[in-house]
Amino acid sequence: MPMDWDTLLCDQRYRWIVTGKVPTRNPEELRTEFEKDYDRAVFSTPVRRLQDKAQVFPLEPCDAVRTRLTHSLEVSTVARDMARAVARWLVYERKEKITGAVPSKDPVRDIETIAATCGLLHDLGNPPFGHFGESAIQDWFAAQKDDIFEGCEGGKGGELAQDFLKFEGNAQTLRLVSKLQVLADEYGLNLTCGTLSALCKYTASAMQADKKSPNHDWSKPGYFASERDLIETVRKATGTGDVRNPITFLVEACDDLVYRTVDLEDGVKKGAVDWPTAEKMLRDHGGGKADNILKGTYEQVSKVAGSVDTRQFGEIAVQALRVHTIGAVVPAVIRAFKERYTEIMEGKFRGDLTDVCDHKEVLDALGDTVKKHVHTTPDILRLELSGRKVIHDLMTLFWDGAKKGEEGTKSYEQKAFSLISSNYRQAYKHALEKKLGRQT
């Protein structure tokens, strides 16, 4: 059975489903439940912490260079606009009968709000230093597995062990918003099932995930064993089963588009790559679509070409390139979504929209430029290597504290344990009590 939008736009919250207690709606409340999700995200501590995480350049003193927070805001903005266009197509051209959430009963508003929220939250669980940080965490657990996992359920080859050996930032995002960010109880931000469903970029467990899988959504773990009950509830409530929510495809495409364009923009601003090099890479490898984008770029910046120096011109040009690239790629991704709409709704399309849109060559050229000239700058490499050691040292310290599990100030283990967030300790205590309750 194909997925159904009225089911996908489930505005029930996990706590409501688990407890069976649905609060009475305030008749003066003008926000939908999905808009409340967005507001909860904006005011949450994990989102604020993104301002201290690097997007590309760690510990960057220049406030014009992006942090992970500004990147997330940009993804959220583009995702909102893309989702709005798709939703209007669904409602006004395809004439899909979608009810929408109260009080507005406006499905366009619901779909764009879910996309905006997921764009804001999509990087929440990524550790410092991004994918390099993920690898550092995985390697630390691999080196300590005999000590840590021997007494765990399933041992070194069990699901709990695999959650850490294949540690993934997207799975950590789900854990953060559903458990670790405490508002009032153990349900975290208590987001709607519709938002949680769209937030799941990957759909496999750690045991199922395989880097070589032909299905993109199974290439990495999408959730930890600790969130399995949540995932099962959300899938049942939204009707997705074990495939992606359609909104997820749009948010991922926006992330892919935004990071390629803005990482290049920041790279030019920092002097990691100059404009002529970036332009040549795009002309040589971006195909005819790149020529059109560059034509629009030069038409926009031609007025200032003779009044600024070479470096300033490069910074202006790469900003214009970002504008024209996003302006061209967003409609291309929307076209790809429309072309594969039936496959997406039936759970048969398991790829990435940016790989099947007609601007793929442009995105690949931008991505290759960033990887070759920006991500490999000596400053970034040095900080990533030192960051790996810092992550390993901190994990060793906090593992020693957690293993002993005593508060105090006499030993370094006690000091380390005392520094572990009370939210996280409370989440562990609740999970342990729940597990012991099941066993009795």
UniProtKB/TrEMBL annotation:
Keyword annotations of the record: Hydrolase
Keyword Lipoprotein part of the UniProt annotation: no
Domain HD/PDEase: 64-269
Coiled-coil zones: none
Domain of life: Bacteria
GO molecular function, one term: dGTPase activity
The name this protein goes by in its record: HD/PDEase domain-containing protein
Organism (species): Gemmata massiliana
